[in-house]
Structure prediction request, 106 residues.
Amino acid sequence: MSDDTNDAPEAPKTPAPLDPVAVVLLDHLATLPQDKSAAPDDVARAYAEIRRKPSDGRDLYKRYQRAVKEQAIHLARAGRIEILRRGEPVNPDDFKGVWRMRLKRS
Prediction:
């Protein structure tokens, strides 16, 4: 008797759904002119407005700053966006200080 488990075709890989912060980040960057970039605080504010409840304070966006950075790193590693320092793309695994982001240029 032969084992046919290796002959079965592989199921097509479906990309994992994006994190809601990543969706807002990509949507925000898509609205910018091609020569512009966004600060992480801009994206955190946009996401905070979606999540806002009447009892939330005006600094709600600060809760989401870390999530924005994590998703930006993830998207940069995947080649979907660029993380910029002084207007130049940087390694998403090794950057510090003030940074911005933009959609990956083709």
About this structure: The chain has a mean pLDDT of 91. The longest helix spans residues 65-77. The chain has one domain: 18-103. The radius of gyration is 18 Å.
